[in-house]
Amino acid sequence: MNMEYRQLGGSGLKVPALSFGTGTFGGAGELFSAWGSTDAREATRLVDICLEAGLNMFDSADVYSSGLAEEILGQAIKGRRAAVLISTKATFRAGEGPNDVGSSRYHLIRAVEASLRRLGTDYIDLFQLHGFDALTPVEETLGTLDDLIRAGKIRYIGCSNFSGWHLMKSLAVSEKYGFARHVAHQIYYSLIGRDYEWELMPLGVDQKVGAVVWSPLGWGRLTGKIRHGAPPSEQSRLSSKASANAGPKVSEEHLFKVVDALDALAAETGKTVPQIALNWLLQRPTVASIIIGARNEDQLRQNLGAVGWNLTAEQVAKLDAASETPPIYPYWHQLGFVELNPPPVPRSKS
After folding, report:
1. How would DSSP label each residue in 188-229?
2. 3-state DSSP call for residue 289?
3. Gap between the Cα atoms of 145 and 58, Å rounded
4. 297 closest CA partner among 25, 49, 129, 110
5. N or C: which end of the chain has fewer CB within 10 A?
6. Who contacts 266 (Cβ-Cβ below 8 Å, separation ≥6)?
């Protein structure tokens, strides 16, 4: 299998088209236990398989199983740090104190130092703000991240789950003060969740911010296991009340319309439903890397099969049409004037 490597936004860093998410490592708490409970031995085997396939970027966060995911990742890559790229995140609450949350100088420095200890490394390749902190001045946040880059503790910065104005304001502050710029935006994007295309994708194209996609299978809905009238299995993250409530809401009518299109293409191509859903994403503008997860070796190998081939333009168009949803304002208005404001991905006329 030949892994494709892509430029991460406007940076010089090349990342694999698929990266591995460590949300399944540890399994502490209701939310993360629904994702998986991979231990260090299993994680090491999964990392072995990833590296054999050319997948060398591993994504984590300080809140994943309360830091245990980072610890397990650190053990799994021990002795081969130079062969991997580590991506992790902080901003969400990571303790009981009033300053154990947010993107303040106080919290970010403590968060980065704690992640470094858990990961067993002295630098993080890509550090991302896990969410926007509206209470901390953007200048303070970006100045802190710039200091951490100059100190050699992080190499590149990104954000996650930002609104368009959050990201654009941050880029403007970086431009004004000469701070490092966000080169990545870790975002939710899938065939049943295409909101990213409306504002964040055009912004990514214009400002050269690469998309790192989380939950590309729509919170487990596009694994090929969900069918008309069939409830999710007990092992599915959707069977957990906490997980289901945290995931995106999708009507059954829309979901099954997309699933039916995926099933038809699976029969046509001989690929699996998840492989087709992932391959569709790999052909979208701005997408630098898609984070895949796996509870076990079989799931991982199946997801790795999303690279090395491409859906045809006609097959992509079928999925586009099946997954189309009505835009909200002002995007429906802008579509009436595409001569002035063409979207990165043309919308179907259906």
Report:
1. E-BTTB-GGGTTHHHHHHHHT-EEEEE-TTTTTTTSS---TT
2. strand
3. 20
4. 49
5. C
6. 224, 272, 273, 276
- Alpha-carbon distance of 33 to 166, in angstroms, equals 31
DSSP result, 84-107: -EEEEEE-S--SSSTTSSSS-HHH
Residue 42, SS3 per DSSP: helix
Q: Cα(23)–Cα(295) distance, rounded to whole angstroms?
A: 10
* DSSP 8-state code for residue 247: S
CA distance 257 to 222: 12
Whether residue 236 contacts residue 224, with contact meaning beta carbons closer than 8 Å, is answered with no
Q: Report strand pairing: 14-16 vs 210-214.
A: unpaired
Residue type, 327: P
On whether the CB atoms of residues 55 and 20 are closer than 8 A, the answer is yes
How far separated are the first and last CA of the chain, in Å rounded?
37
Residue 347, Cβ neighbours under 10 Å: how many?
17
On the question of pLDDT at 350 being above 90, the answer is no
Which tokens hold the place of 338?
């595409």
Q: Given the residues 5, 64, 156, 177, select the one marked as catalytic.
A: 64
In this structure, are residues 30 and 57 in contact, taking their beta carbons and an 8 Å threshold? no
Give the bridge partners for 19, in sequence order. 291
> Dihedrals φ, ψ of 334, to 5°?
-65, -30
Q: Is 36 helix (H, G, I), strand (E, B) or coil?
A: coil
Q: Verify whether residue 64 is a known catalytic residue.
A: yes
Distance of CA 152 to the CA centre of its chain: 24
For residue 138, give both structure tokens.
């953007």
Confirm or reject CATH 3.40.50.2000 for domain 5-337, answering yes or no.
Answer: no
pLDDT-derived band at 244, boundaries 50, 70, 90: very low
| pLDDT tens readout for residues 144-203 | 999 999 999 999 999 999 999 999 999 999 999 999 999 999 999 999 999 999 999 999
Note the pTM of the prediction, 2 decimals: 0.93
